Amino acid sequence: MPYDDSPPPTRRARPLSVAAALAAVCLTAAGCGGGPSADGAGAASPRPGADAASSTAPAGKQPEPSGSASPSASAKPLPKGPLTGRTVVIDPGHNPRNRDHTREINEQVDIGTGRKECDTTGTSTDDGYAEARFTLDVSHRLRELLETEGARVRLTHDDDRPFGPCIDERARIGNEAKADAVVSVHADGSAVGNRGFHVILPAGVKGGGADTSKIVESSADLGARIAGHFVRTTGSAPSNYIGGNTGLDTRNDLGGLNLSTVPKVFVECGNMRDPKDAALLTSASWRQKAAQGLADGITDYLKG
Q1: Among 189, 197, 212, 273, which residue carries the largest CB count within 10 Å?
Q2: Rounded mean pLDDT of the chain?
Q3: Whether the Cβ atoms of residue 33 and residue 195 lie closer than 8 Å to each other
């Protein structure tokens, strides 16, 4: 089926207090989806060929991104705004070309408390709209919104690599950028009937190369604000199958969170395997709302 890829007009972010954010989450009935998925955002040492652009375009329909195609902060002059001087790293989950590099992405990397695959292919809707295409599109839209507010924005990748980056390298990109906030964009692949979004927060982890003690509180604040704005802006409800209808979940098994030294969360925007959620995720107008909800939450956190 053809996907609706037209980017709707953007609007400016609206502030929301932490208390209001949590109230908005907790008082909303379940509706859209997201659940435990493979760790698609962390950071390891670069794998062979990881920095080389592939000459083969990914198969299938590719929704048009609304932002410029650059993994680093935009070279264009940024407007003065509430986020001037702030750095945000956006981590689009997975990579559209991972499926062609199964050997490389199956390589185990250190996540501080153990080892895990470099990356995964991610999920897709029943008609083949890949999570990796969804996450890249939403990330482009989010970048544009944040740059309008004056933020310096960097993507961990922009469909410019044969595979990855690996989950440990994704974390390292945010750390080295000294980001004020990092958001990893995902969509879940759960059972039909499981609906709603959820935000994954880092647990208190210390072991190996992981120590989240300095970011647990700030990441929880970031996640709560994003959850509150996501409810209000998208109309989607917190997950009905994870997080106890709060839209928040804490995990200690994701390298992208374990290895982060800056505030970071994962956002599962919906369940691609549920037809009702899939109808939202494949809609450009809804993806714009999702990007706006993320931008509003990030702005609220950075201004708080």
Answers
A1: 197
A2: 83
A3: yes
